[in-house]
Amino acid sequence: MRRWLIKSIIIIIIISLSVNIGYAFFLPQIDSLENLRLVAATQVYDDKGQLISKLFEENRIVVSINNMSPYIQQAIIANEDSRFYTHFGIDPIGIIRAIGVDLRAGSLVEGGSTLTQQLAKNMFLTQERTFTRKIKEFFLAIVIERKFSKQEILQAYLNQVYFGEGAYGVETAAQVYFGKHASELTLAESALLAGLPRGPNIYSPYIDSKAALERRLTVLAGMVKQGYITQEQADQAQEKPIALAGKKKRAIQASYFLDYVAKELVGRYGANRVYKGGLKVYTTIDSKAQQGAEAALGQYQGAVLALDPRNGYIRAMVGGRNYEESQLNRALVEVRQPGSAFKPFVYAVAINQGLTSNAIILDQPINIGGYAPQNYDKKFRGPITLKKGIRWSVNVAAVKLGQQVGITRVLDLAKNMGITTLVEQDNNLATALGGLTQGVNLFELATAYTAFANGGIMSKPVAILKVLDENDQLLEEGRVVQQSVLGADVAYILTNMMQGVIEDGTGTPANIGRTAAGKTGTTDGYETAWFIGYTPELLVGIYVGNDNRTPVEISGTQVAGMWGSMMSKTLMGTKPTEFLVPPNIVTNVPICADSGKLAPPGCPEIEYSAFIRGTQPTIYDDRIKPNLQPEKKTETPVKREEQPRWWKLPLPRLPSL
Q: Residue 631 has what pLDDT?
């Protein structure tokens, strides 16, 4: 017993000496917890270096603990640090319990930090997750406990903790959420606020009232467990409806983009560093393109995303028609049927398998195992080239092509190009028309299209160019992330085929008088309308669709017009450029659109197509006689090209789709 006591005394002496030495030489000096370190808001700049917003300006009103409701003090302690009044800055019991939880979960679930540790980290240290910072946090928490009373520590914590919605400290939070002072908070209101620090963007009643109520119930249960309130009081508080003060209007350009950037930054630096760290964030946003995107969507519900396909820079992002009405970023989270905007994946597989843009498909009524797709205009065109099939968005052609190349390969390509919402049930012919089980989101679909525009190299979206700290020291630089998903030849031929969509197809309203390619998409019942189009330097995807899935009564062709309007304004004054032609490609080959052969003068419908060198046709369409010497006969018979006849073969029976 005596030996154990001696060892304990020695350990206490070592800890005391370590704390004093650490405080003297390695830890920040602490004089007063009242002098909170208030710094400038994070500033966000566009790609030209112009300030576009101060991201979530710090909003804090410091009040004494006497001006805080006792309920908020009790709720915070009960749920964040139940042994607050008995530990010495660190809580060994809490640490052991957290380690046990982490071991059972197989990952870092709980950290065991006390209120004092959180205060030390947020006020005097960085958010970096390193062993050194954690050791400093431990020692600093002990120092704080030695220098200040529990009430002073609690007061400081409640004045600096982040409650979401840009509100720092309990006084500001009480005003933002309930329109009252912290001293006036009821039990129900206090419990709701006390549940926010662990997940301000998850439990905010402005974002998810159901999650807020569930979290409030957890906090009330913790208060009952710690003896602060009775179960009857908890039940009465939980029955209280949430009565919010209402969010203040936020009329800021690129609001959806700013939220997107903020989420990225918080993930890397923590909420406190982002919201009060005085960072300077230089982004990829093009203010001119952003204004054009917001104007293009107008009063339609939907989303717009503009990317530079060469590097993935996000040039514009609109997540809805009105940020004040809804902060849901539809460019990221809305999953919708893509309709014909999905067809390029089918055609890409076909070209990759060796088919050419002049290959002929017979557009006629079909029935494959009970599946009888119809064209959007209820008409059939007879023999057509693949290029005509995509530029006029012929459904029969896409289904036949999907059957020939294999839907499994189409799905594999789409997944490789970043579409994550595809499921096993999509392995059917309806997928060739974009009839997917779940659908796609605009963010992923537009990203996939960058490969068509960029020589087969998919460019993943980039929002941040660089981040500087409050002392203008570089914290990070944006990195371009690209992946080769298609051959350059295949990508160019697809682009050439989709140029026809704009030049003489379903997307002619998108014709802005300069080189561009794209694809329309309209779902059944006009639930959603799409257009994804691009020039060499800018790709823009637009979808229009009501949140409640009622018909929007417009087609992809009309959305193409919205695209054209935006691009005309955005690219005004810039020099037109051409798509880079791979060395193994021949271009501008005149093709008869109903035979696939070279088009002589007099062909009723000529397409100018691109081919991998050596695959272009060499035989003219002999149905069309040049009007030179019509009576003169040639002694050498005209050579006829052997055409594949797979479209005339009987179609196999497939299960019902």
A: 42
